[in-house]
Amino acid sequence: MELSKKTSGLGLSALLLVGAVSVHADENLLGYTQGAETLPQGTSEAYMWLTHKGEKRRGDYSRQEMRLEYEYGLRNDLTVAAYLNGYRHDYDCGAGCAGAIGDEEISGSRNQFRLSGFSLEAKKMLLSPYKDDLGVALYGEVTYDTIDSITGERGDGFELEGKVIFQKPYMDGQLQWVTNLEIEAESWKPQGGRSEYAIAPRLRTGVSYRFTENWNIGFEGWGDVEMLNPAGGSWEFDHWDVFAGPSIHYGSQSWWATLSAVTQIAGSNEANGNATGQHLADHEKNEIRIKMGYNF
Amino acid sequence: MKQIPHLLLVPAAMMIVHPAFAQEYLSVTQAQKVLFAEADKFVETPILLTDKQRDTIESNAGVSQRWKKQDIWRAEKNGHLLGWFIVDNVIGKHEFITYATALLPDGKVKGVEIMVYKETRGGQIMEESWRKTLIGKTLADPFKLDKDVPNISGATLSCRNVMNGVKRLLVLQKLLLATE
Which chain B residues are Cβ-neighbours of A289 within 8 angstroms? Predict the structure, then answer.
C-alpha cells in the first residue's frame, strides 16, 4: 500500500486517533462511547484522560495519550469544553513496527512526552434521555495538534469532528444503551512536507449496566473507515478497523472514573502479505483507557 | 507489549479505595411526623408482593415494581385511617433515592419527603417547591416531566424516578390497600 510508506500519511491518520479520544460532556459510563446529557447551567467538570495503546505488528511499541479537560454548562442543554492534549511515546521499532517486510512503517525509536495541542468542544442536547425517553445530542469539536500521535514527529494538524449521540435508558436508568454516529475531517502537514487530508466516519455503540450502587459494567465497540487524500494524490480508501471491549465505571457524589480495555477485533491489513486481519499502522492491537471526572 | 505506565494505576487504585457517603435527611419516624402530623398511631403493615401482583403494578404504572417487600404504615388517629405512609427506593444517578410518600384513602398524594439523597446534583428535589408539585396527584394525572411535574436540570433521572415511583405507589394503593 503506497500510503504505508509515508510517515506523513501516518501522522494524518494518527490525528484520527485524537478524534478517537473524543471529548465528553457529563459523566461517562463508557470509555469511548458518549452519552447525550449535558451539564446543568453554571456547573463545571474537570476531566483527566489517559489512554494506553500498545502492540504493533513487530518491534516494541506503546504510547499514551493524555488529555486534561475543563467543561462548563453554558445552558442546561449546551455544554462547552476546552482541552490540553499531550502524548508520551515509547517505542523501539528498528526498521518498522508495521507494514510489510521491506516496506516498513514507523521506524526508529523514541521515548518522550510532549504537549501536542488543544481542543474546543460544544455539545447541544436536543432530547433528554430521561425526559424524552430517547436522548439525542449534537456534538462538535475542533483540534489543533503539533505532534503525530503515532510517530511523535512534529507537524501541524487541524481536525473537525461531529457526532450525533443517542442514549436510551432502560430499567429506570439502570441499563443504558448509547450510540454515536461520528465523522472526522482533518489535515496534517509534517514539518517540511505538504498537507494531506482525511475523512473518517465511525459508528460506536455500547451498553452500561449498574450492577450495584455506584458501579456499572459495560461493553462497547466501534468500527470506522478512513479515506485519505495524500499530498499530491487523490482521495483513496486507507483502512477500516473494528474494536470492542469491556468497561467498568464508578460514580460518586463529587467524582467518577471509568476504566475501559478494548482490542482490535478486525481490520484491513496495512500492506499486502500481512494476513493478520488487523490494521496496525494507524492503530494498535490493544487499548486501555482511564477517565476521571470531578464535579464542581 | 510495553508495560503500562504506573501513572495509569493511580486512578484505578482510587476507584477501589474511595468510600461512599450516605446522606440521610429524615428517619422513618421523622418523615411520619412531617407527613401525618395529626396521626397518633402508625401501624406497620408491610406487604409481600407476589410476582403476579408486581406484574400488575408494572402494567398499570408503566414502571417496574422492583421490590417484593414494600414497607407500609397505616396512619391512624383515634383508630380511624388517615392514610398510608410508604417508604420506597428508586434509582438515582449513582445510588438509590429513599423517599416517603403519604397517600390519602381516596387515592391522592398528601405529601412526599426525601429521606436519603446522595447524588451530585439535584438537591432541589428535596426542596418543598419541587415536592409540593406532587401533592394532590391522582392516577388521573399525566405524571410527565415539564408537563405537570417540573424537571431539575442535572437531576432529570432522579426527578423522573421519584415521580414515577409516586405514581407506582398510587397504583399499589389502588390495587392492594384498603380505603377505610
Answer: none
Closest CA to A100 of A191, A213, A1: A1
pLDDT at residue number A237: 92
**ipTM for the whole complex:** 0.74
How many structural domains compose chain B? 1
Which three cell numbers mark A16?
484520527
What are A104-136's pLDDT values in tens digits?
889 999 999 999 999 999 999 999 999 898 999
Torsion over CA of A28, B151, B175 and B80, rounded to 10 degrees? 130
Amino acid A1: pLDDT: 29
Segment holding A85, helix H or strand E: strand A78-92
Q: Which of residues 32-61 of A touch B (CB under 8 A)?
A: 37, 39-41, 43, 48, 50, 52, 54-55, 60-61
| Mean pLDDT, residues A14-22 taken together | 36
Q: Which fold has domain A2-295?
A: Porin (2.40.160)
Which residue out of B152, B153, B157, B158 would a mutagenesis test of the A interface target, given it has the greatest number of A Cβ atoms within 10 Å? B153
**Domain with B129 in it:** 21-176
- C-alpha closest to that of A105 among A53, A153, A159, A50: A153
Q: What is the pLDDT of residue B180?
A: 64
For residues B21-40, b (16+ Cβ closer than 10 Å) or e, as one string?
Answer: eeeeebebeebbeebbeebe
Angle at B76 between CA B70 and CA B79, to 5 degrees: 125
Say if residue A252's pLDDT is above 50. Answer: yes
Which position has the grid cell 442514549? A167
Q: Write down the residue that cell numbers 414494600 correspond to.
A: B70
Residue B51 located in a structural domain? yes
CB crowding A235-265: b at 16 or more within 10 Å, else e: eeebbebbbbbebbbbbbbebbbbbbebbbe
Tracing cell 528498528 back to the chain, one arrives at A94
DSSP state of B79: T
Q: Model confidence over A207-238: pLDDT tens digits?
A: 999 999 889 999 999 999 999 999 888 999 99
Compute φ and ψ for A49, nearest 5 degrees: -120, 135
For residue B2, give the nearest of A41, A43, A90 by CB distance: A90
Kindly give the parts of chain B with pLDDT less than 50: 1-3, 7, 10-22
Q: Do the beta carbons of residue A71 and residue A42 sit within 8 Å?
A: no
**Is A112 within 8 Å of chain B by CB?**
no
Stretch among A24-33, A77-86, A143-152 having the lowest mean pLDDT: A24-33
Distance CA B158, CA A165 (A): 22
Summarize pLDDT for A160-195 with one digit per residue, the tens. Answer: 999 999 999 999 889 999 999 999 999 999 999 999
